[in-house]
Amino acid sequence: LFYDQPLPAVEEKELKETLQELIGQGKKVILEQKIDPSILGGLVVEFDKKVFDMSIKTRARQMERYLREPANLDSL
Question: Which GO terms of the molecular function aspect are on file (predicted)?
């Protein structure tokens, strides 16, 4: 779990419960927080070789790519 600042205990508990529901009861969720201010906010969750990137940094990159795409005015 990468976060831009330490996660409050209540939010950590809720995130752990949500992740437990996602992976099922056969596995145990152990959160390891890593603080990374470069993500600018949000969080990045890595588990089972999967990455859920909900950081502001990644969303900003996605928006930049979208805005740089040529506009298709034929569909209007």
Answer: proton-transporting ATP synthase activity, rotational mechanism
